[in-house]
Amino acid sequence: MPSPLNDFTSLVLEINGERRAVAFPSHHTLLEVLREECGLTGTKHGCELGECGTCAVLVDGRPVLSCLVLTAEMEGKSIETVEGLAQGNELHPLQAALADLGAAQCGYCTPGILMAAKALLAERPDAERKDIEQALAGNLCRCTGYHKIVEGIEWAAAVMRGEDAEPPHHVLYGEPEPAAAQVPVSAPGAVSEPAPNARLEPPKGQNG
Amino acid sequence: MASETARTQPKPTSRPDSRPTSERPAPVTPEPRYIGKSFRRVDGRAKVTGATLFADDLAFPRMCFMKLVRSTVPHGLIRNIDFSKAREVEGYLGSITGADTPVPFGILPVSQDEHALCPDKVRMVGDPVAAVAAVTEDAAVEAALAVEVEYQELATIASLEEALATPEPRIHDYPKEGGNVHKAVSMEFGQVEDALAGADLVLEDVFFYEGSTHLPMEQHAAVAVPEDIDRLTLYSSTQTPHYVHRALAKVLELPPSRIRVVACSNGGGFGGKSDPFNHEIAAAKMALLLGRPVKISLTREEVFYCHRGRHPVLMSMKTGFSKDGHILGQHLKTALDGGAYGSYGVASTYYTGALQTVTYKLPAYRFDGVRVFTNKAPCGPKRGHGTPQPRFGWEVQLDKAAEKLSMDPAKLRLQNLEEPGRTTANWLQIGTMGLRRCIEAVVEGSDWSTRYGNLPAGRGLGLACGSYLCGAGLPIYWNHMPQSGVQLLLDRSGSVAVYCGEAEIGQGSDSVLAAITAEVLGIELADIRLCVGDTGFTPVDLGSYSSRVTLMAGNAALEAAQRARALLAEAVCDLLEIAADHLVFADNRVFDSSDPENGMSFQEACVAAEAKFGTLSTVGSYIPPRSPGKYRGAGVGPSPTYSYTAAVIEIEVDSETGLYRPVHVWIAHDIGRSLNPVMVLGQVEGSVYMGLGEAMMEEQAYRRLPAKYSSSLVHKHPSMLEYKSPTFLDMPPVTSYLIEDPDPEGPYGAKEVGQGPLLPVMPALANAIFDAVGVRIDQVPIQPHMILRALAAKARGKAARFGPSSFPEIDFGEILHVPTPEQGGDGRSIDDYRHKLRSGMRSASGTMTTREEALEKHGKLTTD
């Protein structure tokens, strides 16, 4: 069988506005070259089969699954990854919103979601919830239940449109407990600052 | 920002308040800076910039790559392994087999039944039989594919029924009773037969709960870095670095002091990364042999073989009610299909019974459980660990009871609620209990009282509740040491380093540690640096499982921070002549609350304390309180306190197609106290999502070819495309209520949130289907054809139900009789009394210890 060392490609990639020369086995995907040859490990992999959306990057502004794209086809194209989102030390509004709402829990799907959301908002700055859900339907997230991500993108979209937006109170604190239900069940204790050994006491009397 | 203000405040003065203490204004406790506020998690920025390093993101000089050669047969003996073609692959570096890793391991001391590489026998498709390393990952893959393995196949045991009916061949040569039953347990609290005989209504149902997997977005990866011939560091995506540390030491036969395990940030865990794994140990072995770093990154298919997910459980539940709707007694039987290895299975088995008692008063309770081995990927702990299955049955059965008794399902639950501070029939100690408020919140929010039972055909509401541990009361291996430890290191720079063995798996544990420390010391999150999940440098924390970290590591952090504050306070009070009870730590300052100008910056306080005491470091540790249960098996179920959740789901069902769609979810969670509400909400919503996945579509199911063609038993769909999980488009709106009833056991009153909110979701969905179309689906995932079949049965005048019809005859072994607290028991079983009388020995197996006992036995465990 031919040695893979005899079949490699070298070319210049433009990633996040920076051009660099890379050499790689010709069959390697953009995902592999970004992570391995370029050291840009912000782009993640969840399946390497185009099923989960985790490895999404932008190529000429459009979201693509980097695990399904051959790097050899990337010459002359503009590639954007999560590492290119922040401007200097300033987070992109999408990054800031997702961070503030806890929409990145484990954070593993986050880079792909950020890139897909960026492409959506570039095309539709006034994207509504339905558009966001549709545009991100190919990105799986196992932590969040998706709502904080959608709310974060809505918030970021408003900020990017120049609106003076804040997330609704219930997004940060939940729905207020209905008044009818506010019946204390156990005596309210002074627990704002528990003494360290308060919890070491033996259990209280049974069936009291 | 408040911090900016703090920095520009007047310099501290040394002018003490000349008034006598009695004339000074009363001390003022400042508003919490972080606790109870929604703030950006401490790792938030790293996660949105791609800076967080997961295990597969690591690279080291001379690092090479390893792949595992995995079994292609479900059950067989390894006859020969031929590496000759693999050695021809350019870049091949070496290979190892089971002969190199003969020592077994397993997460539970009673189930040491796994090998890093199978020495002689394979028990599932995907079992590792060899490992090969090469210079590149491509070459490692190619070399692994070139390894030729010959098997002598054994009969495949594919299901619970087959395992019960097939004692030979055995998948494992334990337990000593023989056959393919891994664990059988039978226990009775009170007189269940009498309770059922006296009941006005007895319901007997059979339920089935299909297995599902965690499907973390991150595939497991590990990098082993050798530092000497007998010393190494392993970086891994693990929830439990401490247990990986123990397993590595055992299998590598090295002193644990020569091994360091670092838990990288996990790209999702959900319980799926809480076992020590064969690939971690094989990589460590390979690294020691090759003398260079070895990385292994699993493919998605391999992650399905790691599994440790939800056990498929068949359940029989027989419960008696009085005609006015009081629960009198229950007999629950569970049968778990455990897969090929023990994993957490013994604990899982007990967990399918243990938490039935903590939501509603259950005066008499019998639990019989059994777990079998089959030739499938091993099951273990997935979010809710063993409790979602019986909770599903219990909450659906309560809905049926309400229907039979013509009672409102919410009222039925409210009138049977457990009470705070009570001890249950199976000797679990209830702490605070916010379930009443949870039920009332979702009932109010969903307009239940006017809409339940009154929605148009095809629309329905369903209610269910749940409860979960805030940390398992006992560690996985028996010991008297703390379950969690935190060390703080402070110095003259004013920086505070927090060291803790916990693992950040996305749940926000790092932020809990940082927020508690910052709150106690009155400093900012940015002034704190964390070193976590590193067995070489951090005090032991048992790991991120059983929803234990906020409560246990949080309490340890609280103790360490309070001790640090005491040191600083003593130094500052001496210098500035402030009464200790007037000293406040806030806004990066330490000052007299009745004379705020009299104070100094936090950094100056550190300088004063370092000058007074020398190098500044404090520790805190946490041991859960003793549980009153003392019978065999009482070790599973106790917790310092329990969280509670109630949910209402509204659903739309198309009775022509059976397709359905959850329209809205109202969920209320008794969090004790929210340390960071936006992160608590993230856990609640994530639990709803994962619960809906289990209820609607997810299944770790297997396909078997007809025996005459092949013995093959393969995973039905080991890919993310075909293992269906909910997408952005499938998630209904969620209205979340955080019910706060601070618990004295929790740091600042906090309880868990990572697992509890999942529990009511599956039964609430099934109950909503009943309200919508009048049929009972007694199994999950609930698929459209099941609804159609049940509707067809209903139309024919048969039982309007889909689900398993019978529960097999099973020998659960000798029954353990335990008198309940109400019967005047003392937490022991009757058999324990006999044993005690016979032997004159103390019977204390499986019970918790108090800190006082631990200190007595081992001397002082912590020092300032």
Low-pLDDT regions of chain A:
181-208
CATH architectural designation of the domain at 55-154 and 217-268 and 273-306 in chain B: Alpha-Beta Complex
Enumerate the strands of the largest sheet of chain A in spatial order, edge to edge or round the barrel. Answer: 2-1-5-3-4
Report the oligomer.
Answer: heterodimer
Q: What strand line-up does the widest sheet of chain B have?
A: 3-5-1-12-9-10-11
CATH C-level of the domain at 55-154 and 217-268 and 273-306 in chain B: Alpha Beta
Average pLDDT of chain A, rounded to a whole number, is 88
Q: Taking all residues together, what is the mean pLDDT of chain B?
A: 93
Biggest interface, chains and residue tallies: A-B, 95 and 114 residues
CATH topology-level fold name of the largest domain in chain A: Ubiquitin-like (UB roll)
The figure for the number of domains of chain A is: 2
Strand content of chain B: 15-25%
In total, the number of strands of chain B is 32
General shape of chain A: elongated
**What best-fitting shape of chain B do the alpha-carbon axes yield?**
globular
Structural class of chain B: alpha/beta
Q: Would you identify the CATH H-level superfamily of the domain at 55-154 and 217-268 and 273-306 in chain B?
A: Aldehyde oxidase/xanthine dehydrogenase, a/b hammerhead
CATH architecture heading of the largest domain in chain A? Roll
Radius of gyration of chain B over alpha carbons? 28 Å
Number of helix segments of chain B? 22
